[in-house]
Structures are given as C-alpha cells and as structure tokens.
Give the backbone structure.
Amino acid sequence: MFYIIAAIIIAELIIKREMEEHLDKERLILKDKVLLNKFHNKGIALSYFSKYTKYVKILTTTVIGALLLLLCYLMHKKQSKFFQLGLSMVLGGALSNMIDRYQYGYVVDYFSFNFGKKLKQIVFNLADIIIMAGGAICIIAQLFKKGK
C-alpha cells in the first residue's frame, strides 16, 4: 500500500510544481467545464482556519500520523485490502498537501469546475479528490464488513 501513497505524492508534487511555475492566468480545459486557476490555501478544506496555520499544521500532522499507524496495524493483521486501499489514498493525498504546508506555508490548489456560481469558487487539487475517493472507499469497505 505504501507504493500507492508514494505514487500519489510524487504525481501531485509534480503537478503542483508545474502549476506554481507555469500557471500565470486562468485557463479553461475539458470543453470549458474545468477552470485551471492557482490558489494558495493556508487553511484546511475551503480555507477554514487559514488564520491559524500553526494549528492546522499540528492537527493535520497528528491526524496523518494516526492514520499511518492505523494502516501499519491493518497491514500487519492482513485485514481488509479494500479498506487499506482507501486509507492509502487518503494518506497519499493528505501527505501531499502536508508537504505543501511545510514547504510553502500553504497548499497549492489549482482547479475548479466552471459551472454553478458556488462550485466555481471552490478550488481543489488532485490530492483533495483522491482523499474524498479514498474516504468513500473506506466507508464502503466498512459497510460491507458490517453486513457480514
């Protein structure tokens, strides 16, 4: 599972560096449905707590540490590969964003959807999408586990 985490981190760091260095203005892609637009997020999701960057770093580092311990425990027990996959995705995305926090002091977000006034204002990065997908996989894995 650690190779999944590493692949996500490497891919996101490459993409974010490209966005930081080469995205000078907004660009529409995918038939004008996706807007590329660089945004520096000092907080957590939706820029919450952006005035408390020190605490955001402490909180995210603590949560990531706990999730890494959980993944190591689950791998040792050889339980729920599907849950481990979801957890690995969450960790890969979260670690990528955490690296940004420590390297730049903010997370590099770079795309939004070009429809709906509110949705257009929410800027994501690939790590955010991977975290959401990984969380969904974890929930599904737990629902099927409880059904047995």
Summary: Residues 53-77 form the longest helix (25 residues). Strands lie at 27-29, 34-41, 107-113. The mean pLDDT is 89.
